[in-house]
Write a structure and sequence with these properties.
Rossmann fold; 19 helices; six-stranded parallel β-sheet; alpha/beta; binds nicotinamide-adenine-dinucleotide
């Protein structure tokens, strides 16, 4: 008989995991506190923007393998495997706020009616799975390994490619310390075995740290290339040729060597801060990660200041912002550079006309109309109309192919700052722009 799965939390990770696990043939219930999300999902409407998600959602709802509910107690009691995919946002001091994880662990303990495997997909600091195990053992009176098992299964999906990543992961990391739990995990991920996905089996602490080490390393690559880009620009070199040549070295790899306005999103900013906080807690100096955090904050400030300087000041001027999401193919704006840069422009006295193909509503939920300084537009050309200067902040494909002659003719000024290096500098200059990019 197949295993019943409950997934607690149906945000980016929980929703994609629910849909993916159902598509592997498992019976899945996605649980969320927010009734409005649950209702939308049961109606077959994705609550986040991810390519391909809608089709998989509807297909599995129709097949009867997938449903969504706010009833965590009943879903946990019915489940053999409970995934934790709740948020772990940064607390005031930079450490991960584990209150959602702990609440969910207590709910599981209160509904431990038979053996279950508790699988943490949320990104949690090293030691958290061990303390989840203790919470559940203390509150349920059950023994780890026999009454229940805790497994760490960190998620590596990229927003914007989440569905593809779920079905074709580079690897599956499983912190798992008993054979019974291992057999459950092998069963639900059988489809990935068939396509020969590498599985890394290790203890709980190792699995937890693999996730943070990976994100901290990727953030380091981005901050490194951003600093190199600033240096290349000051020295008259071309960062693209530099990055490409660096990437030809197999030890370096060409990925994550694209300069820009600084990393954002729901993972790199919070995970770098959390691992630095973990180092402080354990008395280990994380000087590289701390430098990366500082360099990233500086990159956002440098980007905003460069735009203001190129425009000769922005007081009383109109600036078009193309792209609000922290990267292309997502509607997520958490820690997006656009939040800080729009705010900087507002403080400097500019009016901002912003456009994003997907992130308008999520951005408006964060920043509103920025005290009347921010206007949301329905197309890139709408945003550019009458603008004195423009900045590209997200690498959406539609900006790569922007009709530059038309853009120039609609704008009042000619400053164009391509903070993602998606445009052809020669074509931009031919169209009459005073064109700036990053590191070239
Ligand atoms: N977003 C990503 O790209 C990504 C990638 C890898 C790992 N992660 C990690 O996965 C975790 C989840 O991230 P996310 O972006 O999906 O978060 P999210 O904020 O989008 O979703 C979390 C969901 O959990 C729900 N929730 C919270 N407490 C609950 C409870 N007790 N019962 C039921 N529902 C509850 C919330 O209502 C929310 O819908 C985080 O730890 C994150 O670091 C995220």
């Amino acid at each position: 008989m197949g295993k019943n799965i409950a997934v607690i939390g149906t945000g980016y990770v929980g929703l994609v995991s629910s849909v993916g696990l159902a598509d592997f043939g498992n019976d899945v219930v996605g649980v969320d506190l927010r009734k409005e999300i649950v209702d939308e999902l049961n109606a077959g409407r994705p609550t986040i923007y991810e390519i391909g998600l809608e089709g998989y959602l509807q297909r599995n709802l129709e097949a009867g393998r997938l449903s969504f509910t706010t009833d965590s107690d009943a879903s946990i009691r019915d489940a053999d495997i409970v995934f934790l995919a709740v948020g772990t946002p940064p607390a005031e001091d930079g450490s991960a706020d584990l209150s959602y994880v702990e609440t969910a662990a207590r709910t599981i303990a209160g509904n431990l009616n038979h053996y279950k495997v508790i699988v943490t997909k949320s990104t949690v600091p090293v030691g958290t799975n061990r303390s989840i195990q203790q919470i559940i053992a203390a509150e349920s009176g059950q023994t780890p390994g026999t009454g229940f098992s805790c497994v760490s299964n960190p998620e590596f999906l990229r927003e914007g490619k989440a569905v593809q990543d779920f079905f074709h992961p580079d690897r599956i990391v499983v912190g798992c310390e008993d054979d019974r739990a291992r057999s459950y995990i092998e069963e639900i991920y059988r489809a990935l075995y068939l396509i020969q996905t590498p599985f890394v089996w290790c203890n709980l602490e190792t699995a937890e740290l693999i996730k943070y080490a990976s994100n901290a390393f990727l953030a380091t690559k981005i901050s490194f290339i951003n600093e190199m880009a600033n240096l290349a620009e000051a020295a008259g070199a071309d960062i693209h040729v530099i990055a490409k040549s660096m990437g030809m070295d197999g030890r370096i790899s060409p990925k994550f060597l694209h300069p820009g306005p600084g990393y954002g999103g729901s993972c790199f900013p919070k995970d770098t801060k959390a691992i630095a906080a973990t180092g402080d807690r354990l008395g280990v100096e994380m000087s590289v990660v701390k430098a990366v955090i500082d360099a990233n904050a500086a990159q956002k400030r440098i980007t905003a200041a460069k735009l203001v300087q190129a425009a000769g000041g922005v007081k009383g001027k109109t600036v078009a912002v193309l792209g609000l999401a922290f990267k292309a193919e997502t509607d997520d704006v958490r820690e997006s550079p656009a939040l800080e840069i729009v705010e900087h422009l507002r403080v400097e006295g500019a009016t901002v006309r912003a456009y994003d193909p997907q992130a308008r509503d999520t951005f408006a939920a964060e920043l509103g109309d920025a005290g009347g300084a921010l206007h949301y537009c329905t197309t890139a050309f709408d945003a550019l109309t009458g603008a004195d200067a423009a900045i590209v902040l997200t690498e959406w494909n539609e900006f790569r192919n922007l009709d530059l002659e038309r853009a120039r003719s609609l704008m009042a000024g000619n400053v164009l700052f391509d903070a993602r290096n998606v445009l052809d500098p020669m074509r931009a200059r031919e169209a009459g722009f005073s064109y700036l990019s990053v590191g070239r």
